[in-house]
Amino acid sequence: MNTFSLAVHGGAGTILKANLTPPLEAEYHAGLRAALEAGHNVLASGGSAIDAVTAAVCALEDAPLFNAGRGAVFTSEGKQEMDAAIMDGATRAAGAVGGIFGPRNPIRAARAVMEHTDHVMLIGPNALNIARAADLPFADPDYFFTQSRWDALQSTLEMRAKGVEDDDPARRHGTVGAVACDTLGNVAAATSTGGMTAKAPGRIGDTPMIGAGTFADNATCAVSGTGHGEVFIRYTAAAEISARMRHAGQSLHDAADHVVMHDLAENDGSGGLIAVDAEGNITMPFNCDGMYRGSVTQDGKFETFIYR
Question: Which pTM value belongs to this model?
Answer without folding.
Answer: 0.97
